[in-house]
Structures are given as structure tokens and as C-alpha cells.
Amino acid sequence: xxxxxxxxxxxxxxxxxxxxxxxxxxxxxxxxxxxxxxxxxxxxxxxxxxxxxxxxxxxxxxxxxxxxxxxxxxxxxxxxxxxxxxxxxxxxxxxxxxxxxxxxxxxxxxxxxxxxxxxxxxxxxxxxxxxxxxxxxxxxxxxxxxxxxxxxxxxxxxxxxxxxxxxxxxxxxxxxxxxxxxxxxxxxxxxxxxxxxxxxxxxxxxxxxxxxxxxxxxxxxxxxxxxxxxxxxxxxxxxxxxxxxxxxxxxxxxxxxxxxxxxxxxxxxxxxxxxxxxxxxxxxxxxxxxxxxxxxxxxxxxxxxxxxxxxxxxxxxxxxxxxxxxxxxxxxxxxxxxxxxxxxxxxxxx
Length: 350
Ligand SMILES: *Cc1c(COP(=O)(O)O)cnc(C)c1O
What we know:
By secondary structure, this protein is an alpha/beta fold. The chain folds into two domains: 3-36 and 258-349, Aspartate Aminotransferase, domain 1 (Alpha-Beta Complex); 50-255, Aspartate Aminotransferase, domain 2. The protein has helices at residues 39-46, 61-71, 83-95, 111-119, 161-170, 224-234, 244-255, 257-280, 302-311, 335-349, and strands spanning 25-26, 78-81, 102-105, 123-126, 146-149, 176-179, 200-205, 218-221, 292-296, 314-315, 327-331. It has a five-stranded mixed β-sheet with strand order 2-8-7-6-5, with helices on both faces. A two-stranded parallel sheet has the order 1-10. A two-stranded parallel sheet has the order 3-4. α5 (161-170) links the parallel β5 (146-149) and β6. The protein starts with 24 loop residues before the first strand and ends with a helix. The model has no long low-confidence stretch (mean pLDDT 97). The structure holds pyridoxal-5'-phosphate (PLP). Residues 30, 83-85, 109, 149, 153, 179, 181, 205, 207, 213, 218 line the site of pyridoxal-5'-phosphate.
């Protein structure tokens, strides 16, 4: 007998690299190049370190209040986590306990199958054609839960509210989770559906559109009943997932709507520019509604272009995975970052 027999053996999610080299243009983990609201500096300067001797507010109530206000919902419809990855992990643990499989797209956020393995949740993936478009009918089959990002990652493709409503409506017995990590870059949130349906949970993050990946803040919005179940599980796992500094920073970022709009608009316009220029270089560029583009070139493998960019100190994301190994996922950085990246590609392709 050995502890090895009883260990929970899992194959972990692999996050994009955080390189130590400083002069790299980092376009590999969908961070926002503009940094958080300038109001964060005041908060940090005024932060009284004495507060650190106390536990933080266990539910981040002040921050929940700001989120609720921003979206016009009740504070009890908001749940905070240490990054949306934690919100996702707790949501899988809370809601996906059936014997039937949960459903998610074949090409999607690669953390989902990792949670399934960790918790031993059966799952079935929704097959996708070469264009990565999803068909809603694929979700019309037996399941004990559904999750997909909208826009999808890493494809950047968006489905409309009618698509989501039909999936939610057909699957009234299941909870449908919409992972809206990238919704602020031009998509339409499923939030209005909360008024009509109880079986929907929307998850968002401060990491991308609010440029706070380092603060680890994510949140879920749903009916009071659904959200209360999340709190019960969170309070059975870790009462204080969010430190008091992040709670305060998150609040000012949520409330600084002008800066938020300004940054997301800059990213959207650089994305449109990048898509156009990549098309001129012969790339196949699916429509992106996120802060990244997912592209391939007919004449070069994904690995070759990834390596070439890396040699030129530009880091993008590449997966050695069936169906997507010829694609690169390129985060939208500053306009200058994108121009540098495009110039570099031109030197190879033209
Ligand atoms: C980035 C991302 C997340 C997680 O973000 P956090 O930093 O943990 O908030 C969740 N879902 C998708 C699809 C993402 O791309």
C-alpha cells in the first residue's frame, strides 16, 4: 500500500508563458496592454497597510455592489472569485454533478476538460467544422450541464443572443454557463436573459477588458438561487478568496467607465486594423470579437510562424493540437505592437 494509489492524478492546464525576457512583445496571454484605470494608483498610495492584519470582507461586498450597479442587477446576483478561473472551478464543482455528460465545444477554453478530469465529471464535446462555427442544434441533446465561452476562445467567434436563448430554452433542466471573458470587446452579453431564465450563469473577468490580470478578479452573475449555491460551495472551500487590496482596486476599475471604454475601443480598432493587414498578407482570419485574432497562413505551418516571431522577440500563442496546430492566436497589443508584428511578418511573407 502506498499513498500513490490514492493520489488524485491529473494532467494540469498549461497557462501561456510569462517570459522573464523583458524586451519581448508579449501577445500570448490576452492581457490588456493599456494597464488598469489610473485611479488604481491613488488607491494603492492611500492604502493603509494596517488593514492587512485583518481578514478581508469574505464576499467582497463593496465590489459586488459596484458590479451590480454597473449591470443594473441585485447585489445578491453577483459572486466574486479569485480570477474567473476560480469562479469556473467552483461552478463546475457546484453545478456539474450529474451522471449524464456536460457539453462544451470541441475547440474551446482548454481549462474545461481539466476541471472535468479533476472532479470526474463526464463530458461530451460538440464537434466543429473547419470554420469553427457552432450549431445550436448540437446542444439539443441529453446533458447535465452546458458551458461555452462567448466569444469562444481561442477562435474569437461570437454567437448571438438568439442562439444562446434557444440553447437555454431547450435545456431548461440544465444550467447553461456562458463564459464571457471577452464580451467587452464588441459582443453582446447574455445578461438580459437572466430576467427570463433561471438556468443561466454568466461569468466575466477583470483580467482582459479591465487590465487587471495580476489582481485575480472574476465574477459570476445569475439568479439569487444559483448564486447562493455558489456561495455555499465557496464557503466550504475558502472563505476569503480575494484579498482586500484587490477588492479595493476592482471597485475603482469597475466604476471608471470612461477609461474602460477608451481602452476597449482602442483595442477594437487595432484588432480591425490587424485583421485587415493580416488578410493582405494572405492569412485566413475568422471574425474576432475578442482582444485576440486566431489566424493561419496557407503556406506556412503554425509552428514555423510561431518560431519565426519568437526569434524576432514577438511572443504569440500556438497549440500543438489537432485541428488548430496551423493557427496562431495573437493578442491585440498596442497599435505600435501590432505594427511591429505586422512588419515582422511582412519580412517573411512578402
Ligand atoms: C482568460 C480566460 C479566463 C480566465 O481569466 P481569469 O484571469 O482567471 O479571470 C476564463 N475563460 C476564458 C475563456 C479565458 O480566456
